[in-house]
Write a structure and sequence with these properties.
alpha/beta; transferase; two-stranded antiparallel ribbon; nucleotidyltransferase activity; 30% helix; nucleotidyltransferase
Amino acid sequence: MKKPSDLKIIAMIPARYAASRFPGKLMKDLAGKTVIQRTYEAAVETNLFQGVYVVTDSDIIFDEIEKIGGKAIKSKKEHDCGSDRIAEAVENLDVDIVVNVQGDEPFIQQKSLEKLLEVFYAEDAAEIDLASLKTALETEEDILNPNHVKVITNKNDFALYFSRSPIPYLRNKEAKITYYKHIGIYAFRKEALLDFYHLPMLGLEDAEKLEQLRYLEYGKNIKMVETDLKTIGIDTPEDLEKARKLLAN
């Protein structure tokens, strides 16, 4: 295994224009800048990466990033998910760890990303194919919201399952359970990402429309890292309003 100082780490931001739930959301105004510009700049400002790139199928988004002096890559193929889009872009790049920053997550922070990357230097690093973030859910409304993807883990913080449904089902009302929201920021080993790219979708991923389930279905190990980051993913117009209010405070 390479020493920490030898690992080459980059960030990739997959960015579709035609999002099914909120078309064009990445180009919406968020306190004077587009959502995708804010996400790109937040990733750059962490100073954790040798490079930050937006990977997109959209000329509009590509031009937006080029306009601000950022690095953009145009997808050559049609892709159903962000991991496939990133895998195509990094296949011929000399990198070790690829961090997938969702284009609709403009409130990423250096502290949380540092915690995410630290797992690749820990004692069990050899067991980790990819890592991601989770944060505690505090209200029943959030727990029941299918746009908040829930995750459960084993005692070593490896993911057991992700679902849009509340998991676990609380049959024993006295059980002490914390529900966790999955924050869609991943750090992949390049080889795990390329394996994903060349494997077909299976039933669980197709049912929940959650690409991270493909990794679990094929036996990959996903390390989950808890964070207190209170992020707002821009999934709906209501989310955009919440983000605007957060930046106004």
